[in-house]
Amino acid sequence: MTQVDIAPSQVQGRPVQHLEKNYINHSSGISSWLLTLDHKRIGLMYLVGISVSFFLGGLFALGIRLELFAPGMQFMDAATYNKVFTLHGAVMVFLFIIPGIPAALGNVVLPLMLGAKDVAFPRLNLSSFYLWIAGATFFLYTLFSKQLDTGWTFYTPYSSSYSDTSVISATFGVFLLGFSSIFTGLNFLVTIHKMRPPGMTWHKLPLFLWGMYGTAIMQLLATPVLGITLLLLVMETTLGIGIFDPKKGGDPVLYQHFFWFYSHPAVYIMILPAMAVVSEIIATFSRKHIFGYKMIAYSSVSIALLSFLVWGHHMFVSSESTLATLIFSAITFTIAIPSAIKVFNWLATLYKGSVSLGTPMLYALEFIWLFTIGGLTGLFLGVLSTDVMLHDTYFVVAHFHYVMVGGTLFAFFAGLHYWWPKMTGKMYSETTGRIASVIAFVGFNLAFFPQFIMGSRGMPRRYADYKPDFELYHQLSTVGTLVLGVGIALLTYNLIRSIFSGKKAPANPWGSATIEWECPSPPPHHNFDHPPLATDPYDMERVEWDEEVQGFVPVVGRRAPVAH
Amino acid sequence: MIMRIEALLLAGLCFFGSAAPMFAQDAEGAAAGETSEAVKADAGVDVDKLIADYNAKETTPRTFTAEERDWIGRGLDPADVDAFRKGHASIISKDENTIFFLRDGVEETISSDPKFATRPVAPHIAPFATELEGNPFWTAKRASETAKDVDAMFDFIMWTSYIFTALIGVLMVVFCIKYRRKPGVRADQSITHNTPIEIIWSVIPTILVGIMFWGGYTTFLDMRTPPPDAMTVKVNAYQWGWNFTYPSGIESPQEFHVPANTPVEMLMTSNDVIHSFHLPSFRQKSDVLPNRYTKVWFDSGEPATYRVYCSEYCGKLHSDMYAKMVVDTPEDYAAWLVKAGNWMVNDDGTMKSALEIGELTYNRRGCKACHSIDGRAGTAPTFAGLWGLERKFADGSTRVADENYVRQSILDPYSQLVEGYGEQMTVYNPMLPEEQINGIIAYLKSLKDVPRVD
């Protein structure tokens, strides 16, 4: 075993902490951004794009909750409500959650974590950003034409033959967003395969990259099915070819099978990156080696593969045969196990650690709590007998919000706070960040927990109006949404304020042992002066706190072993 | 007991439901009992007079038990009590202040909150509410044996969830406090994996979900396999309503009755988009599809009234697509069936007028969901002032709205689509008998002079 000094270029014995000339200001002018091939700039542009989408989707959510504050129609009619809930779902899923962590955070972090200069195909990376923009443009067109009222699932024959809204432009938007997702997945897959630094064997791959790898497999293999399905839908609507509409000789349930063949893996496209972010943060803030590395890594890949085999559990009450329900229910439970294992591993990582509750860690712990509830309530829906009564009720709405919002959104916030100093070179206020996190957590639970109760008591989803017996739960939910909104507003304020008046970030503020923290904050255009060498990404003792730089620096004299 | 523990677990989030009154009673102890006595006196309800008034109106006077007299004292009127006893009324839900119930198809509310109340109420009804049927905290009222199996599984998963959530939550908090960062204390880097523990925490959840899977599957088979002697009711769902057809051919829109303690199979299909027949009290649901039949079955149980929801999003009025299900005593069921079969006939045996039949048809058949009578155009043209008007079609041709035009529009609507409207209407061929087509024509004639907005 050779011993090599792993420290990057050093000034007076310490690595450079903060770079005045960095990737953000290394060239200027609008075209230096719009035509950039730099993964970090593309990641930042994604971040702006998905944040705008999130804001838009959030406004629709607010509309939904205010309308449902009381029985009877408040300030919308039923047709408007149907459009609002559809646009909320479609914008949040296709424009925000799916690209959220992989495209925005992943783009910035993934090559840095590999010590690489960029992703494998920088031009493909830029084109996937522009496909996202094109998809979003079609959504904007939809918004300003006749909107959309089919639900984000576009179920036929309502979408193909009955809705008089802009189904075609919306589906075409989703089609383009799908290609954006495929290109990102392909890029990450190749990058992880071919551009790992010396020493980074598969078993030394940081868990974030394992998660992104599993995600990329699903993006690459599942998304084309969505593209084809939506093209078939457009063909039926425009050319009158009968595929899904029984009046034209088609079968509406076929559409559901096609749609969920993509959209179930898509659920894991949303949650795997979230788990990946949390694995990094839990280990870093416990200053301890992650527990059960191999189990977490393999569970990511097994979730990715199993996710292709469970789509039928969305059709338990849609005339599916009992044999099919038996098989899909059984496979659904196999996917519960790797998810549970991850939670136990995170907990075990805290055990005998040196736990600090920084803002990213707070979000990560909240993630564990919310994802546990989201995952356990999934059991009710995987069990055939209980799914029958809960299917298409608010129980389902609450369940997937716990997974996608409590899970993915909170992990996104965790990752955003975790890598913010690296991306922007600025530290935000920890106090404000923690307060915002707790407010958001309380608001979220208040918003969605009552929905479990009203759902199990029979309240169907997608209802513009409801009977007064559900009023209490709806009111709690609306109040919770407002509290959640306050938390997110405070979070936004805190981050934006840090850009203007935040302290300069050190290279490694949290004490992580992964490679992206070895370059200065923000990184230079070319990321690393010398190609870094990889060691165990969870060897936390490789770095120690340095009072002078207010961050962690490599331990002088501790030499990292390099694999042969 | 179980409900109280659930309530305690959720107390931090301040949920009410049926657990709230239990809290209130626990907290106030004996005082609660005194209050209800006092309220009874304050309300000044003269039970004997109410019963006498009631019996004076009824052809067959009845006696009321002590329990029923107590209910009357607390706010129900004798007719309500009778309706509950006969199953003509049943509780949809209730909380500490309010009871929602269906009575003869009308949703009524007894509440101490004037916002909800649809009838005069006694000032305090909480003690009364808890005496009636129990409503589990998590789920809707339970109405059948199969539902009990479903609820048993629901409880099993719920308790598994409570235990795991508590375990994870407690460990998380304890670890974060006990192992918080302290100067000079380093994390124990030796703990990176532990094969026995990892096997244990993989195997235990696997066994638990295995039990859930198998239990859920066997109950599901019961829920999907109707007994051979089940009576069949055929269901047609459409945007936005339900039509029920009995073996004898009798049809009933938006409401169906079944005899008590009888297995009932619903054989369902849709006229347009996908709907879903959702009956929470029986824990039953099935999508209703336009190109095939789907079935649900349930044992109807004791006389009661239930709400049927559409739970698959089906367009504009999805959230108004309710039906009413009434479980009747055999005698009441037989009487209702006769009445349902003769809805076009007056009580004295004579036929209703074409106009009356037309108006009833308009309300029963779902015409009113799209065709307004106030002159405003909606998804479809308004009926107001339509009669005699020249209609312009998508291909540019025109036709005056007369008897033959209306008839063709009902039986073959897409042959003459009015400009600006899509192919959305249910084709009522051969669903609509001659008398009802004539009725609609008479109804349109009666609306001839209502001004149109478009």
TrEMBL record, chain A:
<keyword id="KW-0479">Metal-binding</keyword>
<comment type="pathway">
    <text>Energy metabolism; oxidative phosphorylation.</text>
</comment>
<feature type="domain" description="Cytochrome oxidase subunit I profile">
    <location>
        <begin position="33"/>
        <end position="535"/>
    </location>
</feature>
<dbReference type="InterPro" id="IPR036927">
    <property type="entry name" value="Cyt_c_oxase-like_su1_sf"/>
</dbReference>
<keyword id="KW-0679">Respiratory chain</keyword>
<dbReference type="GO" id="GO:0020037">
    <property type="term" value="F:heme binding"/>
</dbReference>
<keyword id="KW-0560">Oxidoreductase</keyword>
<feature type="transmembrane region" description="Helical">
    <location>
        <begin position="44"/>
        <end position="64"/>
    </location>
</feature>
<keyword id="KW-0249">Electron transport</keyword>
<feature type="transmembrane region" description="Helical">
    <location>
        <begin position="396"/>
        <end position="420"/>
    </location>
</feature>
<comment type="similarity">
    <text>Belongs to the heme-copper respiratory oxidase family.</text>
</comment>
<dbReference type="InterPro" id="IPR000883">
    <property type="entry name" value="Cyt_C_Oxase_1"/>
</dbReference>
<keyword id="KW-1003">Cell membrane</keyword>
<comment type="function">
    <text>Cytochrome c oxidase is the component of the respiratory chain that catalyzes the reduction of oxygen to water. Subunits 1-3 form the functional core of the enzyme complex. CO I is the catalytic subunit of the enzyme. Electrons originating in cytochrome c are transferred via the copper A center of subunit 2 and heme A of subunit 1 to the bimetallic center formed by heme A3 and copper B.</text>
</comment>
<keyword id="KW-0812">Transmembrane</keyword>
<feature type="transmembrane region" description="Helical">
    <location>
        <begin position="432"/>
        <end position="453"/>
    </location>
</feature>
<protein>
    <recommendedName>
        <fullName>Cytochrome c oxidase subunit 1</fullName>
        <ecNumber>7.1.1.9</ecNumber>
    </recommendedName>
</protein>
<keyword id="KW-1278">Translocase</keyword>
<dbReference type="GO" id="GO:0016491">
    <property type="term" value="F:oxidoreductase activity"/>
</dbReference>
<feature type="transmembrane region" description="Helical">
    <location>
        <begin position="473"/>
        <end position="496"/>
    </location>
</feature>
<feature type="transmembrane region" description="Helical">
    <location>
        <begin position="210"/>
        <end position="234"/>
    </location>
</feature>
<feature type="transmembrane region" description="Helical">
    <location>
        <begin position="290"/>
        <end position="311"/>
    </location>
</feature>
Automatic annotation (TrEMBL), chain B:
<dbReference type="GO" id="GO:0016491">
    <property type="term" value="F:oxidoreductase activity"/>
</dbReference>
<dbReference type="InterPro" id="IPR001505">
    <property type="entry name" value="Copper_CuA"/>
</dbReference>
<feature type="domain" description="Cytochrome oxidase subunit II transmembrane region profile">
    <location>
        <begin position="129"/>
        <end position="227"/>
    </location>
</feature>
<dbReference type="InterPro" id="IPR009056">
    <property type="entry name" value="Cyt_c-like_dom"/>
</dbReference>
<keyword id="KW-0408">Iron</keyword>
<dbReference type="InterPro" id="IPR008972">
    <property type="entry name" value="Cupredoxin"/>
</dbReference>
<keyword id="KW-0812">Transmembrane</keyword>
<keyword id="KW-0349">Heme</keyword>
<comment type="similarity">
    <text>Belongs to the cytochrome c oxidase subunit 2 family.</text>
</comment>
<keyword id="KW-1133">Transmembrane helix</keyword>
<feature type="transmembrane region" description="Helical">
    <location>
        <begin position="156"/>
        <end position="177"/>
    </location>
</feature>
<keyword id="KW-0249">Electron transport</keyword>
<dbReference type="GO" id="GO:0004129">
    <property type="term" value="F:cytochrome-c oxidase activity"/>
</dbReference>
<dbReference type="InterPro" id="IPR002429">
    <property type="entry name" value="CcO_II-like_C"/>
</dbReference>
<dbReference type="InterPro" id="IPR036257">
    <property type="entry name" value="Cyt_c_oxidase_su2_TM_sf"/>
</dbReference>
<protein>
    <recommendedName>
        <fullName>Cytochrome c oxidase subunit 2</fullName>
        <ecNumber>7.1.1.9</ecNumber>
    </recommendedName>
</protein>
<dbReference type="InterPro" id="IPR036909">
    <property type="entry name" value="Cyt_c-like_dom_sf"/>
</dbReference>
<dbReference type="InterPro" id="IPR045187">
    <property type="entry name" value="CcO_II"/>
</dbReference>
<dbReference type="Pfam" id="PF00116">
    <property type="entry name" value="COX2"/>
</dbReference>
<keyword id="KW-0560">Oxidoreductase</keyword>
<dbReference type="GO" id="GO:0005507">
    <property type="term" value="F:copper ion binding"/>
</dbReference>
<dbReference type="GO" id="GO:0020037">
    <property type="term" value="F:heme binding"/>
</dbReference>
